[in-house]
Queue: 2 jobs
Job 1
Amino acid sequence: MLSQDEAYDLLSNARRRFVLSYLRAQDGPVPLNELSQRLAAQENGIPVDDLTDQQIKRIYVSLYQTHLPKLEEAELIEYDRDRSVLELREAADRLDDYLPTEESEERSWQLVYGALAGTGLLVYAIVSLVPSVPISMRQLGVVIVVAFAIVSLVHYFSERD
């Protein structure tokens, strides 16, 4: 079992995170050349077809000499040097607790809370500037607090699943 420090060390490098993520998305072994090209394209922000041999080689060497041995030592990947292919091992699931899930990335709670606060501020401004609005500041305050409480409960229970 990986300790928390070991997991954070393995995930501290963007290239290792990319390798794990890319392998997780594949159904089987991935050639090291393909992985190097995909990572080089991502790091350079260009399509794979526009990469130079030097850009690919720089990534290939870095993966081969540094990152793959580290992931292999942690028993997260299996690297067949004869065939120059690698694949994710089941043990990589141990890192799931340290990686964001697709669900947690789907909803940005900061935006939800920010939108609620902005809406509350806008309604407060309208109520305070328009004298004929049929709601008191006390009632508005209760509505805003209740809205934040409801959103907080939804956030709490959605994170527990």
Note: The first strand starts at residue 30 and ends at 31.
Job 2
Amino acid sequence: MSDNKTAGPRIILGDPVPWFGLPVVTGGSFDLHAGAGRWVVLSFVGSLGDPRAIAEVAELVHLSASFGDEHLVIGCVFTGRPSQTDHLAAISSPTLSFLADHDGAVSRSFGAGEMPRTIVLDPMLRAVADIAWDIPQGHATMVRNVLEGLPRVDDSAGVPMFAPALMVPRVFSFGICDFLTQFYETQGAVDSGFQFDIDGKTVTLSDWRLKRRSDVAVGVPEVRELIRDHIVRRLVGPIERYFQFKVTRMDRYVVACYDSAVAAHFHRHRDNINAGAQHRRFALSINLNKDFEGGDLVFPEFGTRAYRPSEGGALVFSCGALHQVTPVTKGKRYAFLAFMYGEEDAIKREANNAKLHAGELQYDMSGRDRLFPEEVLPQAVSSVA
């Protein structure tokens, strides 16, 4: 489903496509990496001053009404600067967004520099269709036929999909879970926020549309030691055995709460995208209770299956995996959360201090993130090399 007439870079069907971020006319940005986990339709229409582009956009608006944004999203990518964006904002929807590729660089990277086209991506962001405007069957007709034939996201691979996540039960005892829950309730929680890059610098912001959660940072040495001891004895070994990586450091000892009273949640994201988070290898989530509903982890690239560790059990997964926490609908979900990494990553983290926004905490390799006592650290380092 492609033509051979367009010069410049080409998208090869079956291959992953380059990630990009573009501003959206309604505000914010569209980051392709976060769009995974559903069918993604990128329609490169060129200049909106072209009457053909206006006609194609009208077809996309009509077509988008047939689908929900959990099944697919359509990014209508235009070049140049249209005189009126209010109209584009008015016809936008959760399924259809208008993306401003002012200089045309992204369009050219997708082979749309000389011939506008629509490229369809699977839930893992690999090209499955490349439909040029001059296709004999008709561009709009072919796009409709392709989209109407797409299976459910859970059926996109033809077989059930499972996220590459490690579930380890009984890392914390019920007593430790109760203790950490009470620790949270007595310490005074704060809104946790999330990391965002502005002008190449990582800063912590708060946007309840994307994330709603309250955290307590564990600073008490005795409590940190209790947690560290159990992680080293019960979790470091399985991570090394099944992921072939020896973690030696753990960042951010946090007891968190997702409260149904505020529909707490965390929208789809990856944990190592930001400049100040590139050192992170694995995310760790240990549930501290079970009397709640919702609040499950989902890895959209692998379908809609929900993952929930048992009380005291750990879920470990790559920080590069797209994931989300579904809204808590009843009760409160308490969890211990952290990031795990090694010595080379710690060096990178310290070097990335320069990429942190003013006011963000600077990292010191000699700090408290080590999982092993000083006298055994050299042995841990040699096992990583």
Note: Residues 166-384 form a domain with the Jelly Rolls fold (CATH 2.60.120.620).
